[in-house]
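WARN retry 2 of 3 for item q-0093 after timeout on previous attempt; input resubmitted unchanged.
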Amino acid sequence: MALLEVENLVSGYGKLAIIQGVSLAIEPGDFGTLVGPNGSGKSTLIKSIVGLATVFEGKITFDGSNITKRKPENIASLKLGYVPQISNVFTDMTVRENLEMGGTIIRESVQRKKLFDRVVNLFPLLSSRENQKAGYLSGGERQMLAIARALMAEPKLLILDEPTAALAPIVADQLFQKLSEIRSELNVTIVLVEQNARKALSLANRGFVLIQGKKAFEGTPEQILKDTEIIQLFLGELTI
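OK item q-0093 returned
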């Protein structure tokens, strides 16, 4: 059974439908990458999944539960983690406080401590910055903290919206490496929205191409990268 299933989704904001009948499925253990031109609806699609956009038609199922039109906090309680592109950390709180906030849905203190230790081991930089306010972190460090905070809730699925936007290439590569480690070491299923399509697809086992609110193609990264029509018409950035 798919961990996440989207069926004939029509969604957007207010009365404006941006996503037009999209269906996709993510299996447990998948690393799925959602790519496409700017304005294709990638962020709207994932915001629809996590309850931050209006669903007009269709159905969204996560881990066997119908989450269509549920509130974001109810969806998060099912262990679906989401890292938005911006405003993803509490800048007036310390690194430790941010991580502790991420683990509030874990009731047992022993388990929270175990998760905290595991997360800081995965992101050792955060361990050395525990008492520093998040607002003083660099862009790359903030993104690492945002991902780490999401992991404190022990998600079954982690959805990330363009985490490398505006980051220097070397920092972006470090973040991509962390995502690969998260999938392999923590066994977390991942869905990544990313403009750096070639790099993102290199990490994934499943790719989805979104064009003008519709799913234009679905397949393995190899199939997408070898399809000349997709590259020329839809993913011109892959040839750069």
